[in-house]
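A brief tutorial aside. Many learners find it easier to grasp structure tokens once they have seen a single protein encoded end to end. The record that follows does exactly this for 2-oxoglutarate dehydrogenase complex component E1. Read the sequence first, then the structure, and try to relate runs of similar tokens to stretches of the chain.
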Amino acid sequence: MSQFRALAGVLRGGRASRCQWLRGCGAGPPRPCVDPSRGCSPGAAPVPSAVASSSSYVEEMYFTWLEDHERVHKSWDTFFRNIQASSQPGEAGERRPSALLQGRARSHTPDVAQKVVEDHLAVHTLIRAYQIRGHHVAQLDPLGILEADLDSFIPSDLITTIDKLGYYGLDESDLDKTFQLPSTTFIGGDNTTLPLREIIRRLETSYCGHIGVEFMFINNVDQCQWIRQKIETPGIMQFTNAEKRTLLARLNRSTRFEDFLARKWSSEKRFGLEGCEVLIPALKTIIDKSSAAGIEGVIMGMPHRGRLNVLANVIRKDLDQIFCQFDPKLEATDEGSGDVKYHLGMYHERINRETEKNITLSLMANPSHLEAVDPVVQGKTKAEQFYRGDTQGKKVMSILIHGDAAFAGQGVVYETFHLSELPSYTTHGTIHVVVNNQIGFTTDPRMARSSPYPTDVARVVNAPIFHVNADDPEAVMYVCRVAAEWRATFNKDVVIDLVSYRRFGHNEMDEPMFTQPLMYKQIRRQEHVLKKYSDKLIAEGVVTLQEFEEEIAKYDKICEEAYTSSKDEKILHNRHWLDSPWPDFFTAEGEPKSMSCVPTGLDEEILQHVGQIASSVPLEDFKIHPGVTRILRGRAELVKNRQLDWALGEYMAFGSLLKDGIHVRLSGQDVERGTFSHRHHVLHDQEVDKRICVPMNHLWADQAPYTVCNSSLSEYGVLGFELGFAMASPNALILWEAQFGDFHNTAQCIIDQFICPGQAKWVRNNGIVLLLPHGMEGMGPEHSSARPERFLQMSKDDPDHFPEFSGDFEVQQLYDCNWIVVNCSTPANYCHVLRRQILLPFRKPLIIFTPKSLLRHPDARSSFDDLVKGTKFKRLIPDEGPPGVDPAQVKRAIFCTGKVYYELAKERKQQKLEKDIAIIRLEQISPFPFDLVRAEAEKYTHAELVWCQEEHKNMGYYDYVRPRFLTVLANKKPIWYVGRDPAAAPATGNKSTHLNELKRFMDTAFNLSAFQGKDL
């Protein structure tokens, strides 16, 4: 368009401008100047089309054109071709300007030529208008009652009626004139010129039919040209008879599956696919095309609508396993509570019959939080690519199926798109398929989104968007082919918007006529897509009616046989629905191969080696910041003295696991340096841009890789991504660190729906680690509390039951829990718990409340002796001072966890109460260490028992630990509370108030008469 805008200026410009344009300087190969004496510089930039006012210019150009059409600008070429076309017989072949041409050149050329050029530019602008806005008038709604873009207005620059030609300065007489086509269109096929009438017809065919394409916002010319070629080339959307028959067979299976379920379980919710049955052949086309391009694994995520159909006809899960889920009398035999059938996932490796190649398909389980699975799928896809060495996404890919209302309305969709091209998160292109019901439950789309289309969020990453009428199966299949080719060619996201409808309500029990009467009157009249397409193919002679009916009967028989077989099922097997099996990790029955934990202690040699690398720069000529130099020097001093601070403890854990071949991935906001500038796992050269050093990857020659990556400013999306990454393999330590612990608030959906109940709902083991900075430092309510009460409330251990285990009590407890919650107070214990996470024979999520001030606290240090062979994670750290030596003299035993221990120890020392008061630390809060707490309570028989926390009474740990303490004490002795009073906010924003609160509860903790004589 900028070229066209420049035209007017050139037309008004002087001799030099017109000369440059006449010669076409810089356009294509160098050409001889018509008049070198005019002083044009040989390297001058090309000037857009213009017409000189002097007739001599026209004659000069005409002679040049006659000698060689390529020596003049293409606009002059078009002008002279039109002159020839309108000349009298015999005139066109003359080698000199005819009287006709001379007369026009001298008398009428400026007006005539300008009109010709303007008309060509108008046609070029018209073509561009269709490319940009043609989708607004495409016939996308199968029902024909609502515009897909929520607006019935027709853009004024699209030629929908003859009178609109005037918008471009054209009229009906121009329809049969021939125009030169620009290089930015493929509508001509092998022709470079077309009549205007044919140009408009072809543009309408390409852009205003059952396919509407949004792509002109993409800022890459080659990508735009690629799409134009796929959409505009005449006759490109062709299918062989064999392909049409395959499409019909797939559409038949999709439709008859839903019909079968409706007949057998008419009163059951199943969230069927009626109204968008074309989704099944669409997904199979994408998979076929991708398999042909070399894809070996496809990981999918989708909401509940159509899930059973996808499981049956895409993943190819046994039908009897699906049907038996409808039997209300069957009892589950596996662990966990299970989930409703339309939330379940599946993993299957099979032969793709179209390509005869092996392909692995995985459909991830998903709750009713419709888009929550999006980042989880991306994370698992990234992990599969990582472990296969698939750095370009040529072997593993992801497909995400969405609903229109959720795609537009849920922010995690944007968060997921935003990860799509980040180096540590990209999966090298995802194919998004939107099942566009044109309604969200009962909400009209005009009330559900502000954007024209539900897919507009995809524009932020320059993803092309293909809108297609779902009642045109061939158009859908073609779009799916193009989308798969796009992903294979450019490794970028692409969106397919299947504009469809729901034949029934939100579910089969719903009455949609309450809220959408007109839509559902039309739906009741709407002919099924299978009927329409089968009639079309029968009319074309591709299939016969008999063949079609036999295909229906064949699939119905398959369903009936599976239904009969499902009656033989006696129990439900939750493990049949695993989407992430770890066959080499568990036994064939899905049980751990042992019930013991390998010791987590380390050799002194390993500690020294890791410590030396952690305190040095492995690369030569690498200049680091002086502040980092001081930090490394401090680490070296600690290693020399056989001591650890928090950063070194983490280094020891990661480094030792890397030596054992365990991949470690640490992700989150600012994790490379660490929010509190303590970690520095990535060093930056101060003189060379982008030159970095990751010392952890220089520990051993044959070590596993260490991935540390700063994330986008996202919690929901990134935590979901890391959760998915952790699903791919049990032999990796995957950690997500919140910038501050309370930032997990915006990732709560992932925690509530996947991490906490994942094993119970989907038999899904997962070893994800959440690092949540926590501690009341007087920094205000936003950066103090990681909300431990939320995690503890969701822990499933029974507060009123003292567990009795044979064998290893610790491991058995961990096996029975849904996740592990710890608040370590020493670097050594932090190191041990990270190593235990991998050395356990099973996987559980691990929630770690990490410190802030303790990162540099001089007392929060550990000795190498706490990490050497024979040591392990301490679930509880007893008081090893005078109270532990002579417990009978102790008057009060204070139990606590985390940072408050150091404040208590400092206060006890100041008040000289080391012999009177014991301080015991709970390092593992859940599962609750009943056995160790009982041993401590029995040790301090004569002492009052106190629970002290820095959090407010209605927060933190108190509500969790109190009933468990009472169970340990058999309700024979009270456990007193010391801490802050109940509050609405996690902390005060006033430093003075913070200090006063701290002083008040410290005074209470060490006032030995505070609780005497009081009842519980």
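Self-check: The two ends are 81 Å apart (CA to CA). If you spotted this yourself, you are ready for the next section.
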